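Figure 2 data, in text form.
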Amino acid sequence: MTRDFILASSSPRRFELLRQIGLSFQSIVPAVDESTDCTDPFGIVSELSARKAAAVAKSNPLSVVIAADTVVTVDERILGKPKGDGEAVEMLRLLSGRSHFVYTGVTVICDGRIETAICRTEVFFKTLSEEQIQAYLRTGESYDKAGGYGIQGKGAVLVDHIDGDYSNVVGLPVSLLYEMLRELGIEIF
């Protein structure tokens, strides 16, 4: 039996990752409040991915709904998407020359079953000069990405190395998603 998949997101990066693994899907952007009282990154991404998936699954009960939420943390500080140049520069300075963590919560809803899992990847940044930070800022990549950079774009040159799942840093850990789908009895091959 073929399944209809819905990605509860408007992220072009998540679209690309699902296409990379050959998944046909439609996109529905969930109308949810993304504020939370949770301060733990595991709790935040778990709660928000589940909230997004549930909002879409409510009106699409026969589909397989996939949702994700990603945050970046450094020194237990959560970095969201920068709201302007000043915040983007502050984030890049904070990340320069050290490591940080990227957490993505993934929720899949299928036939009334809800599965949520979390992936964590450690990212090690190169030491950045002020000139490099300003040059990266001019690319425009900072503004719609947690932590103010995109590893799948020009931001790749800012990264020395990673420990963990690359696709998690992009925004959707596809290996984890594959295992979650298999747990639900869905084979994508």
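Caption note: The longest strand covers residues 113-125.
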